[in-house]
Amino acid sequence: MPKFKLLCDRLLQDGVITPAQIYQPGEPPPQWLELVHQPDYVRAYREGHLDAKAQRRIGLPWSPALVQRTSTAVGGTILTAKLALEYGLACNTAGGTHHAFPNYGAGFCIFNDLAIAARVLQHHGRVKRLLILDLDVHQGDGTAWIFRQDDSVFTFSMHCADNFPARKQISDLDVALPCGLEDGAYLRCLAQYLPDLLSQVKPDLVLYDAGVDPHRDDRLGKLSLTNTGLYNRDLLVLDSCIVAAYPVACVIGGGYSETMEDLVFRHSLLHRAASAVFQHRRL
Ligand SMILES: [Zn+2]
Hints:
The chain is of the alpha/beta class. 46% of the residues lie in helices and 11% in strands. Strands 1-6-5-2-3-4 form a six-stranded parallel beta sheet, with helices on both faces. The radius of gyration is 17 Å and the shape is globular. Residues 136-138, 211, 213, 254 line the site of zinc ion (ZN).
């Protein structure tokens, strides 16, 4: 998974960010992972003892490097959330592993960074209410299940109806979109939900999963957004949050493209939109 480093390199190269804007996370202690995940699962994964079936469900070959990478990505989302509380807006260059459940991983997701960040910040008394705004093309099923009986975290998922996971969970609000939806209809749909969502939930922090797999050329998505559509989606989300003074922490979510260069550019649209909003609103 070289895309995470390449994304950071590209953002620096294109002048979207300066080195001073980069923060490096550490690995979170297992106790933080265990605010969401079962200790047996955390230990088995970290030590490489998961059985073959559980490994296949995750879909990534186990290695010590993957353990370190996946833990660091969770640390990144926690750090992003803390920075968002401080500055109003912050973006991870990884994260969005929303298919992970407390006792198993699935769909390339091992630990649910969104759920862990929410629980860690609540546990430390930094926030009470959160909104998880998940616009990855796949339903945020793990996140929905984790918070299904928790009124302090509102889960919103807007995804393609006819896509993984086959068995959907129930978010606080699900918007299932038809295959092939294009920029205009997608953005109108989002604009219809976003204002009420923010004003009704009134979150202390928004966690935004900006998956780029709704792109028309994505190998696993089934929607038809363009790069411009994705950029305008991110602008709409970030500007709506910032104007209403809701801090927003972003993760990059999923993206599956033919070439690494296209994929890295698509993920960079989030940071480009964030930079534009940050400068425009003079945060
Ligand atoms: Zn996805």
